[in-house]
Amino acid sequence: MDSNKRQPSTFDKDLGRKIRTMRIMRDLTMVELSTRLGISHQQLQKHEKGIDRITVERLVQIGQALRVPVTEFLKTDRLDAGINPEILRTAGMLHQLPSNDICRDLQKLMRTICNSWPDETTQ
């Protein structure tokens, strides 16, 4: 490997992870988002992995394509690290619900299901 090649920074990796998280939460594939951005899905993959640095202009485009304020990408939380993509999609769907009452009802239903599910650690 070329020793002059820039190594991805922690910021680049975190930013890419956030983009991936937001993309999955909006139930978009890499191909769908890359098409909206006018780039290849390989280039988007490099952005999501933090391999290629993202310009401010590209970040604004990504925010617009995902309907997310650019400031969301700059928050320093790490809640998205290692979360199952299906959980992210579900969270994205819950976020789109028109009513908090519906969201609370779904949470109660999920809690009931989880509480009635057999605990595999005790079997």
CATH class descriptor name of the largest domain: Mainly Alpha
C-alpha geometry: elongated
Instruction: Please state roughly what percent of the residues sit in beta strands, choosing from under 5%, 5-15%, 15-25%, 25-35%, 35-45% or over 45%.
Output: under 5%
Radius of gyration: 18 Å
Question: What can you see in these coordinates?
Answer:
- By secondary structure, the chain is an all-alpha fold.
- The chain has 2 domains: 1-83, lambda repressor-like DNA-binding domains (434 Repressor (Amino-terminal Domain)), CATH 1.10.260; 86-117.
- It is built from 7 helices and no strands.
- It has helices spanning 10-25, 30-37, 41-49, 56-66, 70-74, 85-96, 100-116.
- It is elongated and about 55 Å long.
- The N and C termini lie far apart (50 Å).
Concise overview:
The chain has seven helices and no strands. The chain is mainly α and 123 residues long.
Could you name the key traits of this structure?
single chain, 123 residues, mainly alpha, 434 Repressor (Amino-terminal Domain), 7 helices
